[in-house]
Amino acid sequence: METNKRLILKIGAIFIGVLLFLTFFSNTIYTFNLPSVVVEYPREGAITRTATGQGVVDFTVKDSYYAKISGKIELLATEGELVAEGSALYSITAADTLNEDIIRLKLEKAQADKAFSQTRLNNLRAGDADYDNEIQKARLAMEAAQKEWADLQLLYEAGAIAQKDLDDKQAVVDNLSLQYQQQYERKQKALLELEKSVRDLQYQIEEYGLELQACAAGEITVAAERSGVVREIGGGVDSGAYIGQNELVMKIGVSSEDLQAVFALPENVDYLKVGDAVALSVKSRNIYNTGGEITRLIMEDGRLKAVVRFTAANVTGGETAEIKVQHTSDLYLKLVPLSAVRSGSFGEYVLYAEKVKSAFGYEYYAASVGIMVETKDNYNAAILLYTRSDNLPVIINSDKPISEGDRVRIVGGSDLVEIR
User: Fold this and answer.
1) How many CA atoms within 13 Å lie on the side-chain side of 216?
2) Strand ranges (DSSP E) for 283-418?
3) Angle between helices 163-217 and 100-126 (to 10 degrees)
4) 8 Å CB contact between 250 and 257
């Protein structure tokens, strides 16, 4: 009887042991089939926003050349060609010489008009009675009114006159001061107009002189005023074609001046301002990360365009340039990878691993908390957590789809996480 009792107890112990083993083994298998997640605590850091754009290189300064006479043109430089100062650009053979007398009359008239304007300018600079008398008259009237106002000020302070009397005199002083300023500006305007007239007439004299030379020789040749690159040939202009006077022949990008490119950037690039230093590359010329400066910002067709000025050697214009701009923010208290940010019907949220004690130890379940995304870049988001907890083990990656309430297994070196 005692032997049977011990046998039954032994069999029962074995059964319970097997049952416990199978239960533990089944739980272990179940655990390994759970979604594997990687967690990370929100950290302090900065947001770095970057954007790229492309633009076409061009010269900031171009010299335009126009036909000084009508006739048959012969191009001596081609588009894209590098030309030195003084090198021949084109020649024009005069269509006829019948207008020589007309050109000579125009030249004589321009010379006479210039002499007349120069004399008036010299007299005005030396002192013109009409202008100077009006200026002197206005100045004396203004000074007399200012003295009267000063006398009234003393009477006002002594209580002999009312404030209105002083204010009325001040209005008179202001009006006379304005008249004096207008008379002075009238003379300055006349000086500027005469100076411009003299310059314009001198230009006409030089142009008529060239036309007479062309009529006499039958041809003129135009040379480059500054070194550069031929960036544009006028429409319809080709060797052997007829060109009318004052028609555009070509434009030369001046190599001694800076280059520029207009870059199209995404509309959300709101951190640039005029004067910012940027780096750009012209890969076709093996130019990388050369410095430039933003000179203008334009919003056009929903795109931000930045005009960047820079210098570079061996660039002829027309090349494609690339730019990369970035902005690093101040420090934010809580940064998480973008992979952690989720969206739902109630807004944005993150899932985190919640630690729960069970019969077999600790288990982890996915819990959610609402967030507000303050800003983000291509990798991280700065967030505010709608909870009082400062640190939560946020789920940043999972090998299976998960949602709130799902049991999860923490992997990727994150097992060390304890709910703090």
Assistant:
1) 8
2) 287-300, 303-310, 320-337, 342-344, 347-358, 361-376, 380-385, 394-398, 407-410
3) 150
4) no
Residue 298 CB partners (closer than 8 Å, separation 6+): 262, 304, 305, 306, 307
- CA–CA separation, 161 and 153 (whole Å): 9
Task: Say how far residue 250 (Cα) sits from the centre of its chain.
Answer: 30
Residue spans of the chain under pLDDT 50:
21-27, 30, 98, 414-420
Q: Tell the CATH superfamily of the 52-60+253-331 domain.
A: Efflux pump adaptor protein, beta barrel domain (2.40.30.170)
Tokens for 32, please give them. Answer: 């390994």
What are 306-321's pLDDT values in tens digits? 999 999 988 889 999 9
Cα(419)–Cα(356) distance, integer angstroms: 10
CATH topology of domain 35-47+332-416: 2.40.420
Neighbours of 131 (CB within 10 A): 17
Q: Which fold has domain 69-94+218-252?
A: OB fold (Dihydrolipoamide Acetyltransferase, E2P) (2.40.50)
Kindly tell me the burial class for residue 270, based on how many C-beta atoms sit within 10 Å of its own C-beta (0-12, 13-18, 19 or more).
exposed
pLDDT, residue 394, reads: 94
Residue 404 has which token pair?
């709130």
Backbone angles phi, psi at 234, to 5 degrees: -55, 150
d(CA 245, CA 242): 10
Give the span between the Cα atoms of 181 and 80, in whole angstroms.
53
CB 94, CB 243: distance < 8 Å: no
**pLDDT for position 201:** 93
Q: Is beta strand 407-410 parallel, antiparallel or unpaired with respect to 36-40?
A: parallel
The three-state secondary structure class of 186 is helix
- Residue 239 tokens read as 């060797």
pLDDT value at position 310?
94
Adjacency order of strands within the sheet including 219-223? 219-223, 88-94, 71-75, 242-243
Pairing of strands 62-66, 287-300: unpaired
Q: Can you tell me the distance from the alpha carbon of 74 to that of 76, in angstroms, rounded to the nearest whole number?
A: 6
Distance CA 351, CA 348 (A): 10
